[in-house]
Amino acid sequence: MELFSLKTINRVFVISPKLGLLLILLLCAFAASSCTKVKSAQGWAGPIVNNGTLYAFTLKDGLIGLNPQSGNPKPKLNSAGNPEVDDKGRPVYLSFSPKKLDKNISNASYSTPLFVNETSMLITARLANQRDSQIVKLDPKTFANADLLTTTVFGRINDDLLLVSDTIYISSVDHNLYAIDVSNGTPKWSKPYNAGAELWAAPALYKGRLYVGDTSGKLVSLDPKTSGDVQVITEVEGSINMTPLIVNDVAYFGTFGNKMYAVNVVTKDQVWSKPIEADKWFWARPIISDGVLYVAGMDNYLYAINAATGNLKWRYLLTGPARTAPVIVDKTLIVATVNYGNQKGRVHAFDISNPDGGPHFFWDKNARSSVIAPLNVKDKIVYFTNIDGDYFALDVPQRKLLWEHTAP
Length: 408
Hints:
- By secondary structure, the chain is mainly β.
- Helices cover about 5% and strands about 35% of the residues.
- It is built from two helices and 33 strands.
- The strands form eight sheets. Strands 5, 6, 7, 8 and 9 form a five-stranded antiparallel β-sheet that branches.
- Strand 11 (about 165-170) and strand 12 form a beta hairpin.
- It is globular, with a radius of gyration of 21 Å.
- Mean pLDDT is about 90; it is low at about 1-40.
């Protein structure tokens, strides 16, 4: 069922993923701004709330701490628990620049901050050469004790890290999947898993196995303790640049071949009679609610698919392509878009309380620029950022924008 469209959108020009271009170049195809401006964006590190602080990235200050209720910068506290001031009596705010560790490290991050415990968090930092990444650990309360987790320089890390017990798993465009001990930075495997193709998305852990897709179109599983016992689950057309969503033994994932698949990871059979086809890529990870798979595509559509059969229930024309996964708060689905044509990135909200019918449209909020970072939810508030480094908080039950923090 095709629903009311917000605006007629022209065809999107896309670049073949086989060229292996950086996301910077991809964004140039979608952004109305020049390539020079797009390069100044901080990446797609999503904001996240932990222990009363919203952690976010800006190019100027690197990692910053905000008040999740107001969006105001959080003051840095001294050992006595009092706000710090500089030599001129001005308040010092909670921030940390990865550049301070090494002049070759930039403030750009492409991973949501990861919390190991109460006194340790991990952030990824893109090196100034834009080809490599490193991982920094620091105290989430004070941003002190900052140091590199490992002296290893990883290839570009384009996605979040996966933490399982004392191990982080790192996907890199250098073709390798790494397993690193978070306590001392040493490798957990004798050698990383080499996919033979770029890894753009984090792996998924399901029933004691790691699952990861690569740009050659392979989805494989492997032993998380050894990187051995590699099994090819399926090979499909187009790059797999998303983390698979695995529910009840079925992996749901889309490709740059413009198709959405459902594959049983035990039998390795295709679950649907045929994949869902679109006019452009699927890059945003799907989400399931009440047996319905919701996925937003680069073709400007939001799709609702029967997860068991693959039958299309409805689709809705958004204001532009979607790069980041939707989130659901109660029965409200939130989906964000990137700049396209004369449309700036927007955040939409839909009532999906009736999964068999079309969504009742709630919101259409202007995000002022492309939203490509993960949306994060805490206490029914959705936190998100645009590529210019502005941050927003949407109160879902009240259906209103709580605050916005404009990048300096």
